[in-house]
Design brief:
Two copies of one chain form a homodimer.
Chain A (H helix, E strand, L loop, with lengths): L6 H9 L6 H8 L3 H8 L10 H13 L6 H8 L4 E6 L5 H16 L3 E6 L4 H13 L5 E4 L11 E4 L8 E6 L1 H14 L5 E5 L7 H14 L9 E3 L8 H12 L6 E3 L3 H13 L9 E6 L12 E4 L2 H17 L9 E4 L2 E3 L10
Helix pairs in contact in A: 2-3, 6-12, 8-9, 10-11
The structure holds a DNA duplex (30 and 30 nucleotides).
Chain lengths: ~350, ~350
DNA sequence: AAAGCATACTAAACCGATTTATTGGCTGTG
DNA sequence: CACAGCCAATAAATCGGTTTAGTATGCTTT
């Protein structure tokens, strides 16, 4: 049974800013590094070490405030307990909500994560996954970003829509989302509906527009091309929605409702409509998409199709960790579909007669 | 002069998912790891290696797509090029803007960062800095968070207000901020002004309130305690501002202007005032704080005291990296003050007579 | 008394880099 | 011809852990 050396070493070490290493801890205990490591990690190999000694080791570790160097451990174990998150931009409502869901699950499981934002620059979208892999992340989550190269590590995409080998896509049921919004508007009597499509680079743009066209057709609503605008520019400000709505108004085509690509653009659209003298929802009803935090606190409060963004983030993290734990050749889900919800607030109303 | 072995090894390695290590690269080249490392890193030690060989090494590295393992490098060099960012929560507003500024500067300098959010739970505020240090971060940025223990690594606090040894505080000039807002309101003729204070846990609450009281006194405005409310609860939703404003209204004390703790609560306040039949700004003027993205797109657009949050994030990152680069005993700034700006929009107007 | 077995550990390899000290060959010089 | 000095590298230590294989000791069993 080992006995710790005099308390002096302990105190001096505590006083000095020196970090305690396994080596110094083992020396202080008069044991080998191996023994200490086994006990600290509660490895199966520690079962031959008497409880008395184990207790001594743990106590010394506590007193010396020993904290294993995570880098060294990761290197040896080939496990970093770290993942990478790639987002277009951090300051935006969308990404922030998804990230907060991701974080929730990850930290709970002892994982940390790196965030990088590419701001839609292609070379960064290429480079960041490589840089992250160089930093030994065990998996990637891409938010609203089309990762190009097949990754050698598990990858979960939130709102990605490409079928890439090795990727799990977490996607909204866009057909249902479009139907919810369009049914809501048609039930209110709207027939002349304007639309704002997303930017070309947004991974949701194509599928969402496709879904809207289907839903419109199913409901017998004709889409007038001159009542369809598209967001342009990389900023995530309502200004984009404002500008495109100005154009829609200027085109002179009458519409009684507008279905925007997202809440941000819906907010800009409302501003533009109001400046043109249209009251919301008396003259024009507006439906947003996403249900970001501030949607509920617009004036009028925004009717919107809610994406469960936080849940999607949690789901992404959960799925990723499951894939990391599974053997590399194991099967994995190609797609996970989540359901939208229509949140009826005050920006929609009966169509004017 | 070494000559690479046959191309077969190259192709097979490229085909296999095996990551290329320094060892395998050196073997392939018929050189030692040391030589390859020196060349790849352009170390001074590489100057004795002929350019011809250097070129061969670099070319092989490119072809085999060699990427040094960052963990191993960090371990050896005792530098991780990683910092930790501690925020209360990853939300749309405050923290996201600061983070985006931090990111801007960090990634540019080759640093990555971990984010953790503590949601105001004390044990997490205690634990996360330790966990981050275990992961060998070289410095910490704390956003709106009072880090308790003195850290062994450089620490920059955004809106921290404690004088802790080892900490650089990035703070707003609160005196000026309060003066800007109060002068604006008094010039518009307001005398009966209500206030919403921040939650107890927010590190800005105390100093901002102190500044407001000073500014009020200097301008000859009396503060009526029954016209002062305080945010309660941990959520970052406008609901908190809504609730406290309801109470203020219920108390029956008349006021013609309201200065909220932040934009989020101002938005809730406007909702509450409107429900009580007050028009903004005809009956009541409202001033927010922060200038978050959606402030400009409220209806009416919010007059607010702008904090340069993105710039504060960038400044924090810049300061931190400078401190990391400096020798440990070097002097460092205890406080860096940034200036607010009054953004006049449509939620304030002349006081009703 | 030899073999078998559990107990209580330890030595040493290993993860993948960086970095210091050293080596062997060659050329030029006193 | 011995010696210094340069060139072109290399061997080996190191970072701080984890993990495998092994060893010394004592006790029981045949």
């Amino acid at each position: 049974m080992p006995r710790p050396k005099s308390g002096t070493a302990l105190r001096s070490r505590k006083a000095s800013g020196q970090r305690v290493s396994l080596k110094s801890l083992a020396e202080h205990l008069g044991l080998s590094q191996a023994a200490v490591s086994l006990v600290i990690n509660r490895s199966p190999g520690a079962k031959s070490i008497p409880l008395r000694t184990q207790e001594l080791i743990r106590q010394a570790a506590r007193e010396l405030n020993y904290r294993p160097n995570h880098l060294a451990r990761s290197l040896r174990q080939q496990r970093s307990y770290t993942i990478g998150v790639v987002v277009p931009e951090i300051s935006e409502g969308y990404a922030a909500l998804v990230m907060s869901g991701i974080e929730d699950h990850l930290l709970q499981e002892g994982y940390f994560y790196f965030v990088v934002s590419h701001r839609h620059r292609d070379e960064l979208i290429e480079e960041y996954p490589l840089l992250l892999q160089q930093r030994a992340v065990e998996g990637l989550i891409a938010v609203d970003t089309a990762i190009t190269g097949a990754a050698q590590i598990p990858l979960v995409a939130v709102s990605g829509h490409r079928e890439v080998p090795g990727v799990t896509n977490i996607v909204l049921d866009h057909a249902r989302a479009a139907t919810l919004a369009m049914e809501h508007l048609t039930k209110l009597g709207h027939r002349q509906i304007a639309f704002i499509k997303g930017q070309e680079f947004s991974s949701d743009t194509a599928i969402r527009w496709e879904s809207v066209r289907h839903a419109a057709q199913a409901l017998g609503v004709k889409i007038n091309d001159r009542q369809v605008g598209q967001l342009e520019g990389e900023s995530s400000s309502p200004v984009l929605g404002y500008q495109v709505t100005k154009k829609l108004i200027a085109s002179g085509e009458a519409f009684t409702a507008l279905f925007a690509f997202n809440d941000i653009s819906a907010i800009g659209a409302i501003q533009a409509l109001r400046e043109a003298g249209r009251q919301i929802p008396r003259d024009v009803s507006v439906v947003g998409f996403d249900d970001i935090q501030s949607a509920a606190f617009q004036n009028p409060a925004l009717t919107t199709v809610r994406q469960p963004l936080r849940e999607m983030g949690m789901l992404a993290a959960e799925t990723l960790l499951r894939r990391i734990a599974a053997p590399p050749e194991a099967d994995y889900p190609k797609e996970i579909v989540v359901q939208p919800e229509l949140i009826c607030r005050a920006s929609t109303g009966a169509a004017p007669r």
